[in-house]
Amino acid sequence: MQNVLAVVGAILIGLSALGGLTVPMDADVLGNFWFQDTYRTIFFHLPLAWSGTLFLLIAALHSARYLIVRQPAADRAAHGSVEIGLLLLVLATVTGMIFAHPQWGSAWNWDPRETSILFVILMYAAYLMLRGALPPDEGLRARVSAAYLLLAVAPMYWLVRIYPKIAAGTLHPTRGPLHAEHYRIIFLGFAGWLCLAFWFATLQARAGNISVETESEAP
Description:
The protein is an all-alpha fold. The chain has one domain. The protein is built from eight helices and no strands. The longest helix has 38 residues, at 180-217.
């Protein structure tokens, strides 16, 4: 099953990339050919951003599950989901910078959307640092980590969904020059990145179980 997720994800991402690179863009809105081509990074940027945000929410669900059932596997799943979500958001930020440079004149403009995603990345990077700095008490580390991830949901939602809409002077278009075919390509990529992310999560879970079994068998 794990390999199926990897293969399906790779195929969907490949199809999305092919579609994003070849689908006609709105020349009337985007103007010259250079702007049309650089706008195609949106077909990579949006699926990565959506997938990364979703995995941070999944981390919170695993944390809630840990606090209810106290299973170490739930704590490891939450930790792994944050790692995956952060990787996807970093890739989304990089593709966003590639988009921003030709469109707005600079790769980084301290736009509200750029600033909000930066704070989200820093907030969850702080979780990883906190987790690593806690005493070597598995129960304490799991409880503190779970509480952190649950408390982080509200500011993360505010940064992702609310702040960019109420902040003044945003460069991000509220509605880009995208049509139904464009959104089909974006959702295809979204499904592909989710398949790859879930595949990687299963590898993390398997590695965690092997590590626990090895430690328990050690003399």
